[in-house]
Amino acid sequence: MQKQSHSHFKPEKSWCLVIALVGLIGGALFISVFFKTSENSILCNNQAPNMGKFLDNGKRLNPQQLQLDAILHYATSRVIPQQSIDEIRVSFDVLKNKTPCNFLVFGLGHDSIMWASFNSRGNTLFLEEDPKWVETILKDAPFLHADTVKYRTMLSEADELVEHYHKEPDCSAKKSFLRGNHRCKLALDMLSDEVYNKEWDVIMIDAPRGYFAEAPGRMAAIYSAAVMARNRKGNGVTHIYLHDVDRKVEKIYAELFLCRKNLVKGVGRIWHFEIPPASNAGNNFC
């Protein structure tokens, strides 16, 4: 989900152009199959289908048009998503049965059109750290819904923040709150009301950047996603997907807050968790 200049996408190589084009065409077919499947899918949270959304210019966004635009975009694009087709299918298999639903995505990039099209009749919100990157992406895809997030953490603080979590009462699973939680450094305490007021059925964590010391790291995103899932009042579990689990911090924080017992599938560098609400999970994260 990160910016292309930060390895959001694999660089194109002339010697594999043919293979890449075949993959892109295959991806377009993959998306088209999803659209046919999603028409008969199970509604999430008993929501009625969203027959159209309004853009900032007042025009209504037609879900079918979004799907067609997505097919055209990926059939002609020269870049490929950071996630592999096998990794994408892990979340695709759930989304095709959950849409329309509330889908929260940490990260904004060229694959965001794909995620939005998978849930074209639902609510998909992207959280991105870089305001300039938001402007760049929305310039070509104004129908995407994105908020800018200010993180209070740095990757270099990952170990220190684990100690902070154990010592700070407002970080405890018993309290589990985000809005205005200034004492817990892992809590995303200044998000938009929309994030706090909705119950998110599916959460994808593929940002913020977490590969150099001064980067925000994904510690707060993982912790906050776990809190959102525990605070769920509706039926069922929250599906959380964490990418780049080959990295030390992602793996440590996943096992601390998302829990091995909730891990239902792992493919490549992505883990899929099903997190029950606190009423079914007790007073501890894990």
Secondary structure layout plus pairing:
Blueprint: H1 17-38, E1 53-54, E2 60-61, H2 63-76, H3 85-98, E3 102-106, H4 112-118, E4 123-128, H5 131-140, E5 146-148, H6 158-167, H7 193-197, E6 202-205, H8 219-230, E7 238-243, H9 248-258, E8 263-267, E9 270-275, H10 278-281
Helix pairs in contact: 1-2, 1-3, 2-4, 8-9
Write a concise keyword list for the protein shown above.
about 290 residues, alpha/beta, Rossmann fold, seven-stranded mixed β-sheet, 10 helices, 9 strands
What does this structure look like?
The protein is of the alpha/beta class and 286 residues long. The chain has one domain (59-280): Rossmann fold. Helix content is 38%, strand content 14%. The chain contains 10 helices and 9 strands. The chain has helices at 17-38, 63-76, 85-98, 112-118, 131-140, 158-167, 193-197, 219-230, 248-258, 278-281, and strands spanning 53-54, 60-61, 102-106, 123-128, 146-148, 202-205, 238-243, 263-267, 270-275. The strands form 2 sheets. A 7-stranded mixed beta sheet has the order 5-4-3-6-7-9-8, sandwiched between helices. It has a two-stranded antiparallel sheet with strand order 1-2. Strand 4 (123-128), helix 5 (131-140) and strand 5 form a beta-alpha-beta unit. Helix 2 packs antiparallel against helix 4. The radius of gyration is 18 Å and the shape is globular. The model is unreliable at 4-26, 28-52 and 54-60 (pLDDT under 50). Pfam families: IRX15_IRX15L_GXM (PF21729).
CATH first level: which class?
Alpha Beta
Q: Could you give me the name of the CATH homologous superfamily?
A: Vaccinia Virus protein VP39
Query: Radius of gyration, rounded?
Result: 18 Å
> Which second-level CATH architecture applies?
3-Layer(aba) Sandwich
SSE ordering? HEEHHEHEHEHHEHEHEEH
For the record, give the distance between the C-alpha atoms at the N and C termini, rounded to a whole number.
Answer: 27 Å
Query: Could you tell me the strand content as a percent range?
Result: 5-15%
SS field, number of helical segments: 10
- How is the largest sheet built, in terms of strand order? 5-4-3-6-7-9-8
User: Main β-sheet: number of strands, strand sense, barrel status?
Assistant: 7 strands, mixed
The domain tally reads 1
- Which consecutive residue ranges, at least 5 long each, have pLDDT under 50? 4-26, 28-52, 54-60
CATH topology: Rossmann fold
Mean pLDDT: 83
- Assembly form of the protein: single chain
Shape: globular
Helix content: 25-40%
The chain-level structural class is alpha/beta
Transmembrane segments: 15-35
Membrane topology: Single-pass membrane protein
Protein name: Methyltransferase
Subcellular location: Golgi apparatus membrane
